Structure to design on (569 residues):
């Protein structure tokens, strides 16, 4: 498709040479470095004098060190990457009077938005792949374990899911950069939606809805059915948040011992003692567990991009 | 000499809600002509240009550019129409050569061919010496020249220039107008120029069209319009007098 290549190359070059990218990359790399270091130290201490379990390598990604694990970090702050890369994609061109010039060239108009989205996607991929490689290399030194094929595949799956998750936010940012003329407005709108979907829909709303629909009375003792109903509603509501979808998918993929996304109605110690008698899942089985989550994540990304695409194609461009 | 119609519109209309921006516009521009497109701000000139480029969908009526419908054949039309928008913008962190290379890339030009055309275009507009400077350091006059270079590298048959001399100093404006005239004479490029500077338009236009409130109130050579409105034959007249006459009537 004519024009797509040209726009893609220009956008990618712009991103890679911008301070914005360098700062963002430095920030992400630094935090991952710290997180994996803490996780590595934790794992090392925890494993001293114990028979080495399978999949130690993956624990670099799934073990919370002091604050949170790598997987949780990407779930919380990954959207920022998409936001920063996309919030001014279209309205910056509009403000500088270059958009009209672009669309009066003999290209299909969708090449503009496709090129920008693909360049952002490539950027995200570059960032995540290098961060994962840094952590892996670090893990090799710190833990002295070599990842097996299964672990490499799992890390690869984790990368794919993460790239899709961040692309969703890139899509949202581009959508707002089309709809809002002002760059500040589109930045704020994306940030607001991020906070709303991740934290309110992810954590606040589920409790609110569940306690309204199926309140759990403390005094009555534990009414089991009520408790289960309450928990189920909580889960169902929280799945409206892309962050929860992603967290589940990523956590199951990097942790073969996780067999369900359902909440466990038991204590941590019980879980540990139970899991001792269970074998880890194969990669295929892990994927089966989170297949619906992954498909949902992919679907919202595509829907979001399709909406931006439609709006952009139908919009009249005058400047 | 047989001339071909480069632009032909019939009853071209654009409405935004209840407001009519362009009202049943029918006019023609012939090959090799410089057509001055006049009218007050908000008369619908830019909207007309956008419809001719296929960037805006007419509410009614139709337009043809070189015999092609700009809505259906948007890409073909954009291949040979160079459009310099009013207040054209540039990527400030690129230099002139890089900007032109991007445009060449978007037009699907081969690398070698593109480099030749870029050098030629820079020479034509007189920017060859400043080609390595970042565009953000350019003056307004240089910006407009770079804008012309950007439309020239695709070797256009037609140029749509929307207020190309706006905000230029008198000398810069004059040089730009001379450049446009030489492009028309030497390369036989048809030019549709919209401007408020009537003196400049009078200098280079073969014919003018005056658009007021979305309607074309006059379309002819300046001489013919002067004869009709001012009743002067070979006395001196200016386009400004003609224009004001039309403007007062509406």
């Amino acid at each position: 498709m004519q024009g797509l290549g040209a726009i893609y190359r220009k956008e990618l070059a712009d991103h890679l040479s911008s301070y914005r990218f360098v700062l963002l990359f430095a920030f992400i790399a630094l935090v991952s470095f710290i997180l994996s270091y803490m996780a590595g130290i934790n794992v090392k201490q925890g494993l001293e004098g114990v028979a080495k379990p399978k999949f130690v390598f993956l624990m670099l990604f799934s073990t919370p060190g002091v604050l949170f694990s790598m997987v949780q970090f990407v779930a919380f702050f990954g959207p920022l990457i998409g936001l920063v890369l996309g919030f001014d994609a279209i309205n910056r061109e509009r403000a500088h009077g270059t958009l009209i010039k672009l669309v009066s060239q003999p290209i299909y108009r969708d090449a503009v938005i496709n090129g920008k989205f693909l360049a952002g996607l490539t950027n995200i991929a570059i960032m995540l792949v290098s961060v994962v490689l840094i952590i892996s290399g670090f893990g090799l030194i710190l833990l002295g374990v070599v990842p097996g094929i299964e672990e490499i595949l799992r890390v690869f799956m984790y990368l794919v899911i993460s790239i899709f998750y961040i692309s969703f936010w890139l899509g949202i940012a581009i959508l707002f950069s089309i709809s809002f003329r002002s760059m500040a407005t589109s930045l704020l709108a994306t940030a607001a939606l991020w906070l709303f979907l991740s934290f309110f829909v992810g954590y606040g709303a589920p409790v609110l809805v569940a306690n309204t629909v199926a309140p759990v009375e403390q005094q009555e003792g534990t009414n089991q059915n009520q408790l289960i109903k309450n928990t189920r509603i909580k889960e169902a509501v929280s799945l409206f948040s892309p962050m929860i979808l992603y967290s589940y998918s990523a956590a199951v993929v990097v942790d073969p011992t996780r067999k369900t996304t359902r909440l466990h109605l038991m204590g941590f110690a019980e879980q540990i003692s139970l899991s001792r008698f269970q074998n880890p899942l194969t990669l295929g089985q892990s994927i089966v567990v989170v297949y619906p989550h992954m498909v949902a994540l992919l679907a919202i990304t595509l829907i979001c991009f399709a909406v931006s695409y439609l709006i952009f194609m139908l919009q009249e461009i005058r400047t | 000499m047989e001339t071909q119609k480069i632009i032909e519109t019939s009853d071209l209309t654009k409405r935004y809600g209840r407001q009519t921006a362009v009202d049943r516009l029918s006019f023609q521009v012939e090959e090799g002509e410089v057509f001055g497109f006049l009218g007050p701000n908000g008369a619908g000139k830019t909207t007309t240009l956008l419809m001719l480029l296929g960037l805006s969908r007419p509410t009614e009526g139709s337009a043809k550019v070189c015999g092609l419908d700009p809505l259906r054949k948007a890409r073909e039309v954009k291949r040979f129409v160079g459009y310099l928008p009013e207040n054209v913008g540039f990527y400030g962190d690129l230099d002139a050569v890089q900007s032109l290379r991007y445009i060449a890339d978007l037009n699907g030009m081969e690398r070698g061919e593109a480099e030749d055309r870029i050098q030629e275009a820079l020479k034509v507009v007189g920017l060859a010496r400043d080609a390595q400077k970042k565009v953000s350091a350019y003056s307004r006059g240089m910006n407009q020249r770079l804008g012309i270079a950007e439309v020239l590298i695709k070797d256009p048959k037609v140029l749509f220039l929307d207020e190309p001399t706006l905000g230029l100093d008198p000398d810069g404006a004059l040089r730009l107008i001379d450049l446009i005239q030489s492009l028309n004479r030497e390369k036989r490029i048809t030019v549709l120029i919209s401007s408020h500077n009537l003196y400049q338009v009078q200098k280079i236009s073969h014919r003018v069209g005056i658009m007021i409130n979305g309607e074309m109130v006059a379309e002819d050579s300046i001489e013919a319009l002067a004869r009709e409105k001012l009743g002067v034959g070979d006395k001196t007249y200016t386009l400004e007098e003609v224009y004001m006459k039309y403007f007062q009537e509406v």
Observations:
- The first strand of chain B starts at residue 5 and ends at 16.
- Chain B touches chain A through 28 residues (CB under 8 Å).
- The beta strands of chain B are 5-16, 19-25, 28-30, 34-38, 60-65, 81-84, 158-162, 190-194, 207-212, 215-220.
- Residues 5-90+157-249 of chain B form a domain with the Rossmann fold fold (CATH 3.40.50.300).
